[in-house]
Amino acid sequence: MLNDSGVGTDSSVIAGIELAIHLKNQYNIRVMNLSLGRPVYSSYLMDPLCMAVQQAWQAGIVVVVAAGNDGRDNSQGNSGYGTITSPVTAHMSSPSVQ
User: Fold this and answer.
1) Which residues touch 69 (CB under 8 Å, ≥6 apart)?
2) Which residue, 18, 49, 53, 56, has fewest beta-carbon neighbours within 10 Å?
3) Judging by DSSP bridges, how do beta strands 62-65 and 31-34 pair with one another?
4) With contact defined as beta carbons under 8 Å apart, do 87 and 67 qualify?
């Protein structure tokens, strides 16, 4: 999903998530760990990466996400909030996971 420098695209990460869902029963995949993050471009309801994470969760895979946290950065005038990156936003906003 990521290259040797830790860089990848949304489409490659989504393809990896989809592959894990497809191979879930064959390899008894029960947990997926995603330690990555990128800026949030839209609501988690419309974000393709968040949607793929939700599909894994709905397939019965426990999804552990450790995404970037930009800290209390107020450069956007948001009092430092909203600095948690995607895909964590999918679960932080999902009442079924809190």
Assistant:
1) 37, 83, 84, 85
2) 18
3) parallel
4) yes
pLDDT tier at 97, thresholds 50, 70, 90: very low
26, 69 Cβ separation under 8 angstroms? no
| Helix (H), strand (E) at residue 33 | strand 31-34
3-class secondary structure, 16: helix
Cα angle value 43/49/50 (rounded, 5°): 50
Q: What is the pLDDT of residue 86?
A: 63
Please tell me the distance from the alpha carbon of residue 66 to that of residue 35, in angstroms, as a whole number: 5
Tell me the per-residue pLDDT of 58-88, one tens digit each, with 9 for 90 and over: 999 999 887 566 666 667 666 655 666 666 5
Contact in structure between 17 and 63 (CB atoms under 8 Å)? no
